[in-house]
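User: Fold this, then the next.

Assistant: Folding the first:
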Amino acid sequence: MTDDLKRRAAEAALDYVEDGMRLGLGSGSTAVHFVRLLGARLAAGLNVVGVATSEETARIARGAGVPLTTLDETPELDLDIDGADEIGPGLALVKGGGGALLREKIVAAASARMIVIADSRKRVAELGAFPLPIEVVAFGLAATALAIERAAIELGLNAAFDLRQRDGNPFVTDGGNRILDASFGRIPDPEALANRLDAIPGVVEHGLFLGLADLALIASPAGVARIEA
């Protein structure tokens, strides 16, 4: 059922794709549905070009017949379609569960519009149940983690971290960095936390996507809800 809802959200996003658009192609299971559905539309005559937010998305896009460009070749995009791990009030997002948060945020910022697609489980009253991915450089990782912990405590948040692993080794992002999954608990003031994280040397990027999405397409058994920021 959940996978079907993800597909319905992805299908709804196709209504916003117009011929000739430059698209940001998100990462994650819901975005994969979108990329594959987009490929079917291209086979039927639609003409677009995409920028992939991860190497995995690029692989799927090529397999689906979606032509790709880069932000160096196409630095301004018309529309970014991406998923989310949590969708809070005002379309504040937590992203990065798949590890592509840095490229996802760069692509979102380069797009005139961002639409987030998800199933209804991802909508929350307050961010924080899903651990916040924080991309950090490997050098000085312990010092960076300590700075993050101190910032969290000063904001009255919990501070528990896990260095993301894959096959028994530290997970390495497409940019060659590591990810700390931070369990802060409730995040009542995402802006304050984002500002503190932005100021910490060693933090490359974090999974708080604030003020980027202006529309969410959230699928439930009752249908697809369209929620504006």
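Now the next one, as you asked:
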Amino acid sequence: MQLASLDPATLAAVCTLFGLLIGSFLNVVIHRLPIMMERDWRAQCAELAGSQLPAAEPLSLVKPRSRCPHCGHLIGAFENIPILSYLIQKGHCKGCGKAISPRYPLVEAITGLLFGYAAWRYGVSLATLGALLFIAAMIALTFIDFDTQLLPDDITLPLVWAGLLINLNGTFTTLPNAVIGAAAGYLILWLVYWAFKLATGKEGMGYGDFKLLAAIGAWFGWQMLPVTILLSSFVGALVGIALIVLARHGRNVPIPFGPYLAAAGVIALFWGKQINQTYLGLV
């Protein structure tokens, strides 16, 4: 009842602080989940080969405690305050003095700002809870894809089901639109994948991209898919050309598409209907 009585500004402030904390946890997910996936793959391969891997330190999203990747210094509570700890320590590890990547506070800041805006936009509602979940998943997928060119099934597949469940009562779209959106989102990129492969003999994208677009379709309906694809393709093309021209990025070096799909998904969350109406009006 007290939460429901909060004015939009106060609710946004609370969710911004909550987002900073979630952003700190997302940094752990971004770093550890690919390592956990690789360990699982190696264990499965070893099992099929009839061999056994050497014992390794158990690793999960909650254990062991976070530590410096350079010196192994355990991160204390006061060193783990979102953004503030980074500023106090001037971006360096307290144990060895090595530089800490500025991406850590960046992830925290982006998460906090988007959480705050979602709360201000939707108020105390199921839509806000859904938006926070969707934003967190998009941020994690974006940075994992940048690092590894992987979009983990552990995130994309539950996100598809979550999108269908949250639309049981029409939170963002109707359930039929969500079901069609999930199927169409997967099939569209699946068809593009095979058309490109048959034409060139190369794989133009990964299966994770299909699942991510399916998730976006499940959350916002099939009507958002054209705008999502156009936005992600346009931004991806601009970034790709800039990397090739300015950073001497090799033409044969793959560029992850997931981050641009994720960015388009967040845009669809907040402004998708308005963009869709404008786009259809122009067409």
